[in-house]
Amino acid sequence: MYLIKLFFSLLLAFIFSALLTSFFILFQNTIWNLFWLKNQGFDISLFVLIQSLLHDLRGGLSPILIQWGIPINIYGVIFIALFFGYFLTAIIRLIIPVNSMFSFGLAGFASLYGIIFYTKMTFDEIVLISSAREITGLLILCLIGFFGGIFFNQLKVYFLKVITYEKNN
Amino acid sequence: MKKIIKYLLIFMISFSLSYSVNAKDKIYKLETLYEGLDMPWDIDFLPNGDFLITELTGKLKIYNPKLKTLVTVSNVPSVLSRSQGGLSDVELHPDFELNNLIYFSYSIKTREGNTLRVSRAKLYESTLIDIETIHSAKAFRKTSAHYGARLLFLDDNTLLISSGDGFNHREKAQKLDNHFGKILRINDDGSIPSDNPIFKDDKALKDIFTYGHRNQQGLTKDINGIIYSHEHGPKGGDELNIIYPGLNYGWPAITYGIDYNGSIISPFKKKKGMEQPIKYWTPSIALSDMTFYYSDLFPEWHGNLFISALSPGDVRRLVIRDNLVFSEEIMFKEINSRIRSIKSSKNGNLIILTDGRGKKNSGKIIKVSRNNS
User: Structurally, how many domains does chain A consist of?
Assistant: First the structure.
């Protein structure tokens, strides 16, 4: 029973943290594009910002690539990358006792870099997340992954506490 | 049961009648002249009626429509044939009969990155001689995407070159110190014409004719010399533009398309100082080439603009009046392939190239001629 609860706590932590990471990635992309437009002399009002962000959150649902015949959207790409990153980290941590918060942060960082690396390999150097085409943007994107990883770790701990609390009561 | 059979019979008869009427009504017929080209990209016509065809894989070929033979031209420079890059456009010099010069665009790999190059050479029988590079675009990239690569001779013998935005470098289309997302104008020897547009920016390159483009794969002019260009949008927003020197066509600051990941590239579609397309397509049809039709073989098409498209693969016949698109007809869907190029031959037939959906040696040359039956 405890293992099932542990599984669900990890699942919930993953879903929440991956969703938040996806949100910040899309947010960064929107801001990046709007910031460039502002430098080109466009008036970027709060309304334009919110409208663009909402559009991008919705737009992220449309397929970005087809892998093994399955259309995958940007959320799917981020979720898959983070899943592999965290899974690999969990296995490594069984062998090498590395600091949990730091290791999952690093996993998030590497996962997001992996997305860019993979899409560049697949699409002949094309970077599909436009904000990651420059080194600053890429670094911000990876840092979002880093904090996403830390958040996952914190949520994991939190949900485990909740489980323990429920168990004790 | 009888009723069902009755209605089924009526449906079948009316369907077959309408089909035969449609087939009879077609004023044109399609004929495959040749099958087996490897990613054909462009076609031009030699004075003797032969077709000069480029293949993206780096070969230049001459097709003789009378003998139905295909000859590979020798001495073609090596190209970077990868993804969207390779041997692209070919144009005969307006005085070809006097100087035998042909011009061709292609992608190459340099130390600084991949870029677009334009060379000219003399064509003697099936060999290129005196090959000379007349332009190398200042548009270096790691990708092999968005080269543009269309060529067009203007009436004053200057040459227009479309140079794409290199995909990852879209913002540079708004800067004038590079060749990303530009239409360039040079003399036939590669020098810069003295009457090219002058921009306020000191860093502006002297060969820039227009800017703010994405991936322009169609470049043509009408009988009055008005220049038309079309370009691929991202996800939606393919555009047809009329080209005037010195103007900014907006990409990526204004666009009718969105990014491939579903996000907004720009929430703006219009801005003062940035030109509007005379037509745009959303969803994208992946415009590939275009030609104006002025022959008497199809008088009903006189002055119409034929645009070929890769996705899903058809030709758009546009009726243009006073520089505005009056109507659009989707044609040649029955070809059922990605249509890479369309040109009007001297005898009035339309010649179409299909790229065989990327399958090796499955590109076709298709002739559209009058259906007299």
Answer: 1
